[in-house]
Amino acid sequence: MRAVRVTTLDGPGAITVEDVEEPTADGAFGPQVLVETQAVGVSFPDLLLSRGEYQLKPELPFTLGVDFAGTVRSAPEGSGFSAGDRVAAVLGHGGAAEVVAVGAESVFPLPDALSFEQGAALPMNYLTAHFALAVRGDLQEGETVLVHGAAGGVGTATLQVARGYGARTIAVVSTEEKGEVARRAGADEVVLVEGFRDRVKELTDGQGVDVVMDVVGGDLMTDSLRSLGALGRLLVVGFTGGTIPQVKVNRLLLNNVDVRGVGWGAYAMARPGYMRWQWEQILPMMESGVIAPPVGATYAAEDFGRALVDMAERRTLGKSVVLL
Ligand SMILES: NC(=O)c1ccc[n+]([C@@H]2O[C@H](COP(=O)([O-])OP(=O)(O)OC[C@H]3O[C@@H](n4cnc5c(N)ncnc54)[C@H](OP(=O)(O)O)[C@@H]3O)[C@@H](O)[C@H]2O)c1
Known about the structure:
This protein has helices spanning 44-51, 116-119, 123-136, 153-164, 176-185, 196-203, 221-226, 250-255, 264-269, 274-288, 304-312; strands at residues 2-6, 16-19, 26-27, 30-31, 33-41, 62-63, 67-74, 86-90, 99-102, 107-109, 144-147, 168-173, 189-192, 209-214, 228-236, 258-261, 295-300, 319-323. It has 2 domains: 2-122 and 293-323, Medium-chain alcohol dehydrogenases, catalytic domain (Quinone Oxidoreductase, Chain A, domain 1, Alpha-Beta Complex), CATH 3.90.180; 125-265, Rossmann fold (3-Layer(aba) Sandwich), CATH 3.40.50.720. It is globular, with a radius of gyration of 19 Å. Strands 5, 7, 8, 9, 10, 17 and 18 form a 7-stranded mixed sheet that branches. A 6-stranded parallel sheet has the order 13-12-11-14-15-16, with helices on both faces. By secondary structure, it is an alpha/beta fold. It is 30% helix and 27% strand. Strand 11, helix 4 (153-164) and strand 12 (168-173) form a beta-alpha-beta unit. NADP nicotinamide-adenine-dinucleotide phosphate (NAP) binds at residues 43-45, 124, 128, 149, 151-155, 173-174, 178, 193, 215-216, 237-242, 262-265, 311, 314, 316. Pfam families: ADH_N, ADH_zinc_N.
C-alpha cells in the first residue's frame, strides 16, 4: 500500500510516497481497528516531524499523518465499530497511509453530513479547541473569545466550538482574504492583526474579552493580555509566530487575569476514553451544523511536502487536506 514517508529529517522537500506493507489488526497493545483512509489532515506537527523538531521523535523511516478519515475495514468485537463505518481518527503519526491500524479509543464516528475531507480536519483541532475552551478556559455562554490565527486549522475549529457554547467570537487575521475564511467559518467579528487591540476595545465597549485563544505567541502576547477584561483567561496553545513570549506577571495582578497552558495531546492520550468523551461533547455541534470544518486546499499524496511548505509560508486558508 502507499504511505507518505519521512526517510530523512530534511523537511517537507524530502517527504516521499513509498510502498510499504499493510498493517495487521494485531497491535502490541491488543486488537486494533483497521481503517481504509480516504483523507489526511495537514497539520503543524507534520511540518515539525519532517524536520525532527517535534517533541515526538519517531525512528526513521516513519509515516506522517496525525488526523485521518475513511471507512472501517475491520474492528475488534466490543469496539463499537464494524466494517463499513465512516470514521475520523487520530494518531501521533502514521495516518497518511492507505490502510491504518489504530486503537479503538482514537477512532470516532463521522456523521453523514460531514465529508471525509472534513473528517480529516476534525480530531486534533476540534478536540484541542474543546479542551482549551471548555476545560482549560472554563468558557461560559455569552462570553467573548478572541481567536488569533483565526483562519487556520485550530483557529477555525475554535471559532466553531466557541459558537457551539454560545460565545461571541472575534477573529484576528493577517489579511482580508483570511478574514473571509474566518467569517465563513462563523466568526462574529473579524479584525486585522495590525492594531487589533484598539479594535477589540471598540468592539467590547472598552470591557475587553473573556478568553484569548493564542496559537501565535511572539510579540502579540502583551496586547493580548491588555485585551482581556477582568477575570479573563489567555490560553497558550502554540507559537506559529516563531518565538515564545515572556509574561510580566504584574499584568496578571493588575487586571485579575490568568495565563493558562493548553497541552491537549499529552493530557488526552494519557487518559483512555478521554477523547471519546470529548467527541461526544462536540458531536451535537457536528449534527446541528455549527461544526463544519472549512477545508481549503486539497493535495495529492505526492504533494504532502508542498502542502507543508504552504503552511510554513503562511499561505494556508482553513484546513489543508491530502487525498489518498
Ligand atoms: N497545544 C495544543 O494542544 C495544540 C494542539 C494542536 C495544535 N497546536 C499548535 O497550534 C498551532 C496552530 O496550528 P494550526 O494547525 O492551526 O496551524 P495553521 O492552520 O497553519 O494556522 C496557524 C495560523 O498562525 C498564524 N501565523 C502567525 N504568524 C505565523 C507565521 N510566522 N507562520 C505561520 N503562521 C503564522 C497564521 O494566521 P495569520 O496569517 O492570519 O496570522 C495561521 O493561519 C501550531 O503551533 C500547533 O503546533 C497546539
